[in-house]
Amino acid sequence: MLDAASFRDIDPGQRVLMGPGPSDVSARVLQAMSAPCIGHLDPYFLSVMDETQQLLRSLFQTQNALTIPVSGTGSAGMETCFVNLVEPGDEVVVCVNGVFGTRMCDIVNRIGGKLTRVDAEWGRTIDPQAVRDAVKGKSPKVLAVVHAETSTGVCQPLEELSAIAKDCGALFLVDMVTSLGGMEVSLDRMGIDAAYSGTQKCISCPPGLSPVSFSEAGINAITNRKTPVVSWYLDMSMVSSYWGAERKYHHTAPINMIYGLREALRIIAEEGLEKRFARHRLNHQALVAGIEAMGLSMLVPETERLPMLNTIRIPDGADDVLVRKALLNGFGIEIGGGLGALAGKVWRVGLMGHAARERNVFLFLSALETILKTQGVAVKAGALEAASAVYSQG
Amino acid sequence: MLDAASFRDIDPGQRVLMGPGPSDVSARVLQAMSAPCIGHLDPYFLSVMDETQQLLRSLFQTQNALTIPVSGTGSAGMETCFVNLVEPGDEVVVCVNGVFGTRMCDIVNRIGGKLTRVDAEWGRTIDPQAVRDAVKGKSPKVLAVVHAETSTGVCQPLEELSAIAKDCGALFLVDMVTSLGGMEVSLDRMGIDAAYSGTQKCISCPPGLSPVSFSEAGINAITNRKTPVVSWYLDMSMVSSYWGAERKYHHTAPINMIYGLREALRIIAEEGLEKRFARHRLNHQALVAGIEAMGLSMLVPETERLPMLNTIRIPDGADDVLVRKALLNGFGIEIGGGLGALAGKVWRVGLMGHAARERNVFLFLSALETILKTQGVAVKAGALEAASAVYSQG
For A97, phi and psi rounded to 5 degrees? Predict the structure, then answer.
């Protein structure tokens, strides 16, 4: 028998979320999420949906009508883009330089797409020439790439890949889970046909929704399908009827999560995109300056680094798990370990959204220095001074 | 350009949610959802996951190890059960007497199952003999039925269908979106192999999660698949590694939604299942007594009615939409209209979870009586007295 009294009140404490996501959530967002739940066809909620779409379009920098939060986490957004655009037998080219490109391939295989992989070393960008070679003589339906590889910290330039997609008549599909809200991601200017993101990275809303956007060419591909979308839940032709003018019932929207997303997007609009992106860059530069001053090194070459996800090589003599435990238990700081081939080799330090701030950079640098010294790892002096210098120039 | 200042604070007011869901959410649940977001592998969150599973097993009345909330709404739970159990070419028998049985068929067709439908009139139960006839000479992999048809208000008895499933070697799959938390649904005693629900009905948590549970036979069917599950996001062989002992990263769990679900389940455990089910029955009986005293009639015959979803025939002379608008705008009460073949013919009045209470029954009866009279529809006197009489006996 279950003893109801043995379950205590929710009390997660207050972490400093500097991992690969979720990131710290503003109290305003949490407050919005705790507003009374109302019906998913209530006139007030319909206005919340419209505003959320408006705010999302502004963040994606697009006029795309079909711009909505999918009722699932970032991976549901990935699946949404592929299952709607790809039919069995369609050729799909996927660029792979980390966990999330690998996941794209898994999905393409499950839904019967004809997959061509373009692989690059984990921790480096995809070479556009390799993509050009891969599509030669082919007419892929989709060319897919991850903008911000959360598993490695690599930032993929999109312009050249977009041009290659246009040249070979492919739809350009981009994973923006970690980049959206933390750096420039203009869908319209960059010629992106389908993009998805997550709420728990640079948007700083709890996980649970996945903003997606489809261009007119993307919508045409959905409209002209010969086979039904294999997922009923993620079928955009139906989901868009609920978010569009028809307001046709499909599934019950996650009301309170959408309250939270709207508030998080409102905070972004108040800050302004330029200022927000600059803030992410500045804090990233300060963190890197501190890390390098300590004598540690970054996995990714300087020109290929993401601002919001920093992969630090674990120095010789440091114990991956013990260091992360000491950060969490001693300082309340969450960072991420390496994934896949990078497990045990790197730490992933997020500076995302609400968490991308000076006080977190200083807290992390001083905590890491202290812990490494305690564990007998040689660390050079001057990390905080190096970070300070960046801020005073910034 | 977007004007950030034009977006106001979230302020949905306070509705009385007596539609087909979402239902009223307790302030305790909203408060739990607004606790600080932490990492999805944080030791504290792992304990929240374990407790949520414990509480869910108690509510489903099962020992099933694989009992978790899927990271999507109830329809994602439906899709989860079918995509994991059904492979292309597998025979599936689906009972259809409303919108949600119809949806099951849609999903089976999309994933390449060989579908056999057993149809019944909308507003009536499925006749077990028709199911027996349909499976004769067949070896279906799955027999699927909706326990509580939210579109009609019909309660499907499960025992005989479960026996038929066992006889023909089929897995018994049951939609419990609207029944779970409001009436008896013992998975183990009823021999159910896969079940899914939603959080926004009788659990009284906001929408966004779908509790699912698989029996050992269900898990074996997943383990012995010859083809991969078509959905990466809903693939239980991977999702269960995150919820199980391995804690293997799959996708980022909707942290704050799970806080809310745990609190809603804790409230249910505190009340006790017997007491909770009795409360749903009593309020249902009072509502029906009042409705019938007014001279209106129920769609579903007495023995086939759900306690938590009441379908009332719209009386002659009443305007469906105008009445619902008057309820919402004058009294803050949300009820549902009819779906599909029942559009314009019935109102759907929910008495779910936190909303299944005396004050809502009285508010609704008095509001409806007032509105109908105002609109010139003949209504008999005595609704409140009839409801009162039920409570004083109850």
Answer: -140, 30
Phi, psi of A391 (to 5 degrees): -65, -35
CATH number, domain containing residue A357? 3.90.1150.10
Q: Cβ of A63 under 8 Å from any chain B Cβ?
A: no
Identify whether A3 is part of a domain.
Answer: no
One-letter amino acid at B284 equals H
Is the CB of residue B353 less than 8 Å away from at least one CB of chain A? no
ipTM strictly over 0.95? yes
Residue B329 lies in a domain: yes
| Residue A50 near chain B (CB below 8 Å) | no
Q: Give the mean pLDDT of B114-138.
A: 97
Residues B172 and B187 in one domain: yes
- Domain end marker among B270, B288, B320: B270
Residues of A in contact with B40 (CB under 8 A): 22, 207
Q: Residue A17: inside a domain, yes or no? A: no
How far from each other are the two terminal CA atoms of chain B, in whole angstroms?
Answer: 60
Which two structure tokens, joined as six digits, stand for A338? Answer: 């390496």
CA distance A223 to chain B (A): 16
Strands B333-334 and B114-119: unpaired
Helix (H), strand (E) at residue A348: strand A346-350
Per the prediction, chain A carries an average pLDDT of 97
Q: Please judge whether B37 and A31 are an interchain contact, meaning their C-beta atoms are less than 8 angstroms apart.
A: no
Same domain, B350 and B215: no
What are the pLDDT digits (tens) for B146-166? Answer: 999 999 999 999 999 999 999
Co-location of A47 and A110 in the same domain: yes
Q: What are the backbone dihedrals phi and psi of residue A194, each rounded to the nearest 5 degrees, phi first? A: -150, 135
User: Which residue blocks in chain A are alpha helix, DSSP H?
Assistant: 27-33, 43-60, 74-85, 99-110, 128-135, 159-167, 187-190, 216-223, 236-243, 255-271, 273-293, 320-331, 358-374, 383-393
- Domain range spanning residue B51? 27-270
- Per DSSP bridges, beta strands A171-175 and A194-196 are parallel
Residues of A in contact with B328 (CB under 8 A): 42
Q: Is residue B361 over pLDDT 90?
A: yes
